[in-house]
Amino acid sequence: MSRDHVQSPQRSGEAAATGPKAPFLELLARGASADAYEQPVLLARAEGLSPERVAALERTKRLALRVRSEMEGRRRREAELSALFETAHDLAGLRDLDAVLQAIVQRARSLLGTDVAYLTLHDEAEGDTYMRVTEGSVAARFQQLRLGMGEGLGGLVAQTARPYVTPDYFNDERFQHTRVIDGGVRDEGLVAILGVPLMIGPQVIGVLFAADRRARVFEREQIALLGSFAALAAAAIDTANLLTETRSALDRLARANEIIRDRSGVIERASDVHDRLAELVLRGGGVHDVAAAVSQVLDGTVEFAEAVVTPAVALEASRAEGHAVRHGDDWIAAVAAGGELLGALVLRGHPGLDPVDQRTLERAAMVTSLLLLARRSASEAEQRVRGELLDDLLDARDRDPRLLRERAWRLHADLDATHVVLAARLDGAAADADQEASARRRLWSAASHLAATRHGLAAARDGGTVLLLPLDPGDTATTLARRTAGQLGTAVHEPVTVGASAPVESLADHPDVVGAAYAEGQRCLDALRLLGRAGEGAAAEDFGFLGLLLAGDRDISGFVGRTIGPVVAYDERRGTDLLHTLDAYFACGMSPARTKDELHVHVNTVAQRLERVGRLLGDDWQSPARALEIQLALRLHRLSSPARP
């Protein structure tokens, strides 16, 4: 018997003399095997010690064995922590990924005491997994295995992202067996296999295995230890990938630096533009200051142009693409905010434009849009004040003329000048109430901007807007209405119909005329819509007394069709000109002789045409009542036709 299992009577007596703990403390100090802890109890019984003494020794033995087990666990954990620390140290000084992974597999095999340890990784390009590192393997086919996703024990680990262990690989039906995998495992002679996932975040990138060539049950502590090594392996792979990406980024940065050095002159010019534009913004410069600064840098003529005077196709292309576009020998960069076109920067006579200079023009357009938006934000308060003043002119009849003039003067408006009141309304169909409200806000914003630039007033009213604009010398209410309809329609990208009043004067002294003029403009607006001329502009002077007749909901086309429809259809079908003959006939006081002079035809031709009209309209068409209806229908038909420029 070994010295751990044999104790002399003398030592037994010593144990009895020193108490039940002494022999076990000596065994713990020597690191004796577990079997040696039975000897003190057996000797005590052989010597006939009292039952109480034997029971005390039994309790002390159990306690000593617990201490021994705890000491062995601590030594094992110290070894595991030391291995993990060494692996982490290797990872911190990562130079060779293969060397780090090999060290991880070696230490896992050593600490778990397995015959083989190995690591597989996913190959995203091939769509399978491959053996990356092995330790203790002797079979060449096993070392070269490539496994399809979801196959074998590793496939089960990858699918569930959880560790799996099998004490008997070939008799375990929880995972998919394949001929290739089973052949490689059989060549290696593996029986018990433990696999844990390699994870980067939520993604499984591979599996770390420990395997024995005999049946074995892996303890939970061993599974946890292999999982710790798997985490270090995943960190090593992630670190290596980051280093690779960093090196690639550094390479790209080096190439970019070469390009920057090659283009240093262009960059300096762009920097100069940036500095100038920043200075302009800080000191409150305007759009024309931006154009002047860019003109100096690009060595050309850059101008800010309103959207209505810029080539529409090129302007829309620039807005849609977000880049400056070439138009003949010019370059056009849209100045836009959201869906609204505010104008354009136009570079004149510069067909050959460097890409960086093109980008400079585009940035200048962006700065211009920001300046315009900032100015618009600053002027919104002024626009509200303008709207309040116009509301007072429309609604309050007893305002003090002096106060009205002062308020207008602060807004750069002159109420003593000749003005025109214009009623504007959108005619595009809105999909829902929100879109309709948004369209109305855009119309009010565009009208307010137009009123501010023209030293006028604007306010939202009756589902549309009302504008009070000064009438320039040589201009008419009709041309102002048509021009306003075009400007507002371009600004909001929808048809806008505008009805204008006759010119009005002395608004401060007679503010009640503004309300009457607005009513007149509304009647013109209603007349245009009834006549099917939505999106156009017209003034009261274009309708005469018919403007009063057209207010309300009347069937204009039905009246025209019932009255002169056969003549209209005959002209359209035969290509004749009976309508023009009727107009001339009534204009000449129903005199065939004067009519033939007006039309420059023979009197017989006039007679033949009037005879044809009589057959189409009836024999009583020249009676006073019928003649009045026919003349009115002719006038309405002419007004319903598209306006001629």
UniProtKB/TrEMBL annotation:
Keyword entries, A-Z: Membrane, Transmembrane, Transmembrane helix
InterPro entries: CdaR-like_regulators, CdaR_GGDEF, GAF, GAF-like_dom_sf, PucR_C-HTH_dom, PucR_C-HTH_sf
Domain GAF span(s) in chain numbering: 96-247
Residues passing through the membrane, by range: 189-211, 223-243
Sequence similarity: Belongs to the CdaR family.
Name listed for the protein in its UniProt record: GAF domain-containing protein
Gene source species: Streptomyces avermitilis (strain ATCC 31267 / DSM 46492 / JCM 5070 / NBRC 14893 / NCIMB 12804 / NRRL 8165 / MA-4680)
